[in-house]
Amino acid sequence: MKKQLLLWGSLPFFLLACESAPKTETPVKKETLPQAEMPKGPSLGQHLSEQAEQLPQMHRTKKLADPQGFSDLASHLFNTLPKTIFMGRPKEDVDYGIKGGYRTAIIHLSSLIGQNDWQKIKPANFFVGGCQSDELIDFENKTSFGHHNPELLEQLYQALDQNLKTADWAKHPSMPEPYDRLLLQTWAYGQLLPWKNEAEMTSLKSNYQALMQKGISYEKITSSKAYEHFAKQTFAERQKISKEYPHAFDYRLNDYEAEILAFWLRRSIDGTAPQWQKIINRLQEHFN
Fold first, then answer.
1. Residues 153, 276: contact at Cβ < 8 Å?
2. Cβ(33)–Cβ(147) below 8 Å
3. CA atoms of 128 and 279, how far apart (whole Å)
4. What are phi and psi of 281, to 5 degrees?
5. Which of 59, 70, 72, 143 is the most buried (most CB within 10 A)?
6. Nearest-angstrom CA–CA distance, 206 and 145
7. Sequential pLDDT tens for the chain (288 residues)
């Protein structure tokens, strides 16, 4: 799918957006992942084929598995990010309008590469199960989510780590707005979650899954007792992080707390939280 190339650029965390909510059973020590479902929605390639700017000819021979190809494409994506447009889709169609949310970022960034180009240059599929696939994205699915490919994420981390040390595009002091704040907040939440406390993580995930199975928006997760307990337990840590990064938990401009929490819970369920932590921690270390 068209938007996936950005994963191999400087902004991989925007791919988080391509899910809605899990349809798994109450998690135990080792969760049973949802059954794969056939996506119902049109692919981004189908949505945007008439409007999207295709990958420039100079990049079409690049391969993401090749270090120089990765660096060239990452530079193209990073520098083109501020030029992406909303593609004329209704705000409600992507949930977050023009504020810079995950799904909006996907629509914006899908203007950078065509469906066919992505299929040619990707080293592996980004999705390995759930309701999403690299060929078809289902934005309307409310009962399942896409499972990320841990091997691909590990490859991404290795390439990204090297690029952040040497590439010209990585010399920018920060990510373009408003994605700089989204990165910071996603990183900060990753520091808060009780990853080693199985009981607390199970409580948060179970509540999240229950909401989704009932068709209730994941945004309600911040109204649950499990969240209230989590918020009290992490209050001191939030204050500590906020002293160094004042906007880490300031959601007045974007209100993405539930979205970010849901992302991390999905990654805990599909098993890719460790890979995403490495990627986001590295980006945070470099840009913030």
1. yes
2. yes
3. 19
4. -65, -40
5. 70
6. 15
7. 333 333 333 334 434 433 433 333 344 344 444 444 444 444 444 444 333 445 555 556 667 777 887 888 788 777 776 665 444 444 334 443 444 445 555 555 565 666 666 677 778 888 898 877 777 766 667 777 889 999 999 998 999 999 999 999 899 988 877 778 889 999 999 999 999 999 999 999 999 989 888 877 778 889 989 999 999 999 999 999 999 999 999 988 777 898 899 999 999 999 999 999 999 999 999 998
The identity of residue 120, as a single letter, is: K
Integer Cα distance of 30 and 41 in angstroms: 30
CA distance linking residue 61 with residue 72, whole number of Å: 11
Tokens representing 128?
């390995």
CA 172 to chain centre: 21
User: What is the reported pLDDT for 266?
Assistant: 93
Q: Are 164 and 90 in contact (CB under 8 A)?
A: no
From the list 168, 17, 164, 176, the residue with the least C-alpha distance to 81 is 176
Close Cβ partners of 111 (under 8 Å, ≥ 6 residues apart): 48, 51, 52, 53, 84, 85, 87
**Helices vs. strands in the chain: H and E counts, helices first:** 11, 2
Q: Do 260 and 189 meet the contact criterion of CB atoms below 8 Å apart?
A: yes
What's the N-to-C CA distance of the chain in angstroms?
30
DSSP secondary structure string for all residues of 34-66: PPP----SPPHHHHHTTTPPPPPGGGTT--TTS
Asked whether 60 and 69 are in contact (CB, 8 A), the reply is: no
